[in-house]
Amino acid sequence: MSRRCETTYNPNVNYDLNSPKTIGIYVKFKIVTKRNELSSGIMGGSRNGHIIAGTPIAVDFWIISECSFVKLFFLTHLHADHIMGLSRNWCFPIYTSPVNANLLPLKVPGLDPALVKPLQLYEEHLIPVCKSQTSSTTVTVTLFEANHCPGAVMFLFQGEFGNVLYTGDFRYKPDILNEKLLPIIDVLYLDNTYCSPACTFETQDEATRIVIEKVKELLEEKRKILIGVDSLGKENLLLSVFEETGCEISVTEEKMKLLKALGISYIATRLDSKIMAVPTQIINAKTMMHWNKVCPTSAILPTARFVGCGSDPYVSYRDIYIVPYSNHSSFSELRLFVELVHPQSVVPIVPKDAKGMFGRDISDRADMSVFCALLRKEKTDAELEMNSEEYWKDSEDNFSIDGSGDCIGPDFRLKVQQRTATNASIITTNEIETKNDCDRTSECIHSCSSDEENTVWEVLRLNGASPIPEVRYFTRNPFGIYFKKNLKP
To answer: 489 to each of 409, 422, 423, 424, how far by Cα in Å?
Structure first.
């Protein structure tokens, strides 16, 4: 970003935020601000994408020169630090949520829309991957709501490499995961933005309540209210403010386009209003002084950026209120999430060399040893065998799968074959009773247990939308709850 501002934003000038001239000045101001942010670390927009180790998958990673071997590209959400390198010249398919697919043209103008592949949430998607000209496999992908900003999702990847959950940026809530769809997780890529015991703040619901109470209090005092927001995010907060006050919120042209795309533009106006949503960057002591010369004005900054930094830059300003409303999880919420997922290992998404507010060292937030007590320990062969024997005894050598997907997932067909680890030829094929119900298929697998040593089970999942089967291998228990590893015979 080498462009320079011909007209710069002056904090000593009292701008009319609804005027076209002001918007033009702010857009140019934003170019310089964003350039500074992109070099300032975790709070400002460092690159927070990853290539998933041992896979052909990249998430929020768009530097082709560094990932020439990657076959599949996924996008969690549209904040600047997660789309760095993504431009109109991009030429590979992008898998993302339907909301992200809808908003992507606003963030990356000129991008070929045919490359954007929206995937529905909470459904399993089989995506083929070409290993070579004669060989291919598939990756199973499930998307979960991330509760971060419009369109933000987590990705669950399943394949020969195991089960990997990638959170992207997310805010924990008790029902954030549909536990029926979540298998045993081998690797968890975790949003560690606030992974420090010092990072404690209110839940989103509580922070929203505090913001609304403050807004109502300031309206009673006949004060104009400025709410600092980012270009994407906190739309739910604005919606709650509108619903509780009945007051339309004045927004910039850029924000209005976003609200229209989200279908909630009725909460906003381009005209002057008692409540204004303004860019966070332009709320400071000098601008507040000049706004107050026009009319009594207060500002609310709903952000947790200063939590854990040891200082509050606005503590001495009576017209600026900080409410720790965050779209990221607090430390205690991260512990609850890791305990819920119970992975074998955790990888931080935000790198160790990222910097916090005011250039503060926050490398401790990339230390995942704080979750050691919550990780799943690898079962021994003896434990696995004991669990398997107990399981089959309880099931009386019969196991049925309905179309609800409780064990493996919805909308698939199963073919179960018994093989030995030393011989790839089929020894026996178990009897399969198929029952069709609407578009779902259910099977009853009879007499699935086996006492033979070195026996593995091959499960071919054939999704109706893809002719390429996904092959998974299980030891002793083909559908068990005691799934160990993907093991190729």
So the answer is: 24, 7, 8, 7
